[in-house]
Records
---
Amino acid sequence: MELIGVRRFLRTHLSIEQRRLIKFLVVGASGVPVNLCTVWLVTTFLPPDALAGLRDLAADLFDFSPLTRTGVRDIVAYGLAIAVSIFTNYLLNSAWTWGDRVAADESGGFIWRLAKFYLVSSVAAVVQLGTSTFVSASVRSSELWNTVISGEFRLYHAFSPVVGILAGLTINFVVNNLWTFRRRSNDGA
């Protein structure tokens, strides 16, 4: 089935909101390689010892001595990856997923929508980061999950963020659909 046939099939058999959800999932899927690439870049180019002071501060501040330098580097990598993928997802969602609503919004509030998108995504990101960190800490000591993919990049570095991404998905779609890109009264969709 060619691309035009798929589009025609989806338009015929799915509601606009069902198609919007599919678009959101496609955009979200495009954020996965952005996220994983960012984690790879940080874990490849930022040595764990570069964050020794941050690790010691966090261990003292939160009285959490099991936190390792590698664990701190992983948290930084996951957090930065989330921030970068939120921005690329916003650009794609604004243009494609909710492009009809953005075009109908005469206020032209790119920055306001971006701020709302980051706020919503940040709540989902807290869930994502917490889940990624928890999964990472839970499986890191396993020989299987600690398998080296490249240099310092381990199998758990790929697995943990994917689980976290899935955890934040529902929050992101529902709240962004109802608030960030909400349907305006003059919007026929």
Note: The CA atoms of residues 117 and 176 lie 7 Å apart.
---
Amino acid sequence: MSAVSPAIDRVPLLARLRAGAEQLGLALTAEQGERLLDYLGLLVRWNAVYNLTAVRDPAQMVTRHLLDSLAIAPLVRGATLVDLGTGPGLPGIPLAILAPERTTTLVDSNGKKTRFLREAVRVLGLANARVEQARVEDLQGQYDCVTARAFAALGDILTWGGHLLAPEGVCVAMKGVIDEEEMRGIPPGFRVEEIVALAVPGLGAARHAVIIARCR
């Protein structure tokens, strides 16, 4: 039984999600597929009141939110992850659903978004996820993986949140078209390990993951 009463037409959305995940090389379990749609249902319902995302169509949410987030799953490493400026939980919640063994911290300074996040974590039963309402620069701790999607320029991500990256950890920053000037703004002490082109099924737009590590 789904944890969320059906406010969306789940059958075609699940088919779209499963087909897209397969193209990404991900084998979703039945439970993961249902949980991802439970999250989508919550997002659709809360979005009608709180305007958490400009994307309104559930089918587009599957592509532009769920599959876009899952596209970086093979690049994420380690036992702890912090998602900076997570908004309504992207990519943090899909990644937490996919990897229950990893501890995921969802960070946003916006109160209405963190209220939604806490409700989503509760309803979805995500024991591996916690929510922090804070500015990134005020957060403490170190994490094996730092993720950021549509949050800030690379230089700002690392200036504000670089202290959160463990010595052997990686930052996976999600970007559209690579901006060379932005790349030059990476502060000292960090280096680009790799730039990975992401093929998000059905998106039809350029997507890249910039993987950044500490300089040795």
Note: Confidence is low (pLDDT under 50) at residues 1-6.
---
Amino acid sequence: MTDDYIKKDEGIHIALIPDGNRRYAEKLGKPPWYGHMVGAKRIEEFIDWCEKYENIKIVSIFALSTENLKRDKKELEHLWNIYKHQFHKMAHSEKLKERKVRVNILGTEDVWRSDVHQAAKDVMKLTAQYSRKVLNILLSYGSQFEIVDAVRKMIEKGINKTKIIKNILEEYLLVSHPVDLIIRTGDQQRLSNFLLYQSAYAEIYFSKTLWPEFTEKEFNKIMEWYFEQKRKFGR
């Protein structure tokens, strides 16, 4: 488990799908990685915005899907470079240290570039002691694979398939906590295989704004909208 030290009824779990980096770059006549670089800076700001809400305890960000690995090789190399740079920054971030934020970088690790893998290990090791808040970075991640892999691990552990129940399954997922709010930018209305199990009763907000143009003002409006929702959890 990645976040079992935070009680499941304690605080808000926000999941972010930051879509629109490439379209932003195209709009400016720039190469795709320009949009990714601006988007990475916006992620840093987003984390700061979330920090202003004490009741936001977990933030999960969709950094790279398994499907994204099919992109142009040159674009992927730039993406890996951005991830390595960002993980290095996190490892030495005084903000994360002061805020006691634990960073989890989760996904299909065997496809990560070796230097990115090392940078991810470093930041996780350096923040493992913290428990006030959690930042999950989902890298080369797909929810369907996560669920299938969790069941496979349970069977390998000798858990009888007739005893595969909700609580046990959640212990083997990369992210164990249910999502309360999903924000997707870029005017696309789909979840794209992101935290499907965890988002069973999540509120979902689709923003028309391209991710690099997303602002704190819009985020605050979304949070106001979220707090106005009457969550029924299927009841």
Note: The chain has a mean pLDDT of 92.
---
Amino acid sequence: MTKEIVILIIIQLAIWTFLVMRITVYIKGEKLKWKERRDFEKKVKDACTIQTNNGVMVQSQGEKKIANWLYDHDIEFLYDTPMKVPGRKYPLRPDFYLKKHKTVIEFFGLIDDPNYDNKRTRKIGTYWQMNLRILSIYPKDLDKIDTKLSKLIKE
């Protein structure tokens, strides 16, 4: 073999080695993302410990009150179901999605938490961009939940 052929073989081996390493790193990264996503889903599911009148498990008493009101008024909803958002890597998870009404209901139970407030603001903005109506419910609203949600029936 000539010297040039040996050099070409070494270069090709180096390229193949580099490609295999890059593919391996990519696959490990994808597995890690999948594991993190699976762990997040499990964490969310484990947090749902409160049963509503129709058997849906929710995370808080506020969500239970909303779910029971919707159920009692025969309003179909999806609870904490991932919603694909164009241009976003991860889906949003509205507390309640009323497909028939193109409405999202979010129960914002934390007050005066800057990190939570930022997430809330971004979430609401994303819903508006998706042309969805959003009803924000806060702990102070739970005593007048009928007034807050009754406009859904009038549509």
Note: The longest helix spans residues 3-47.
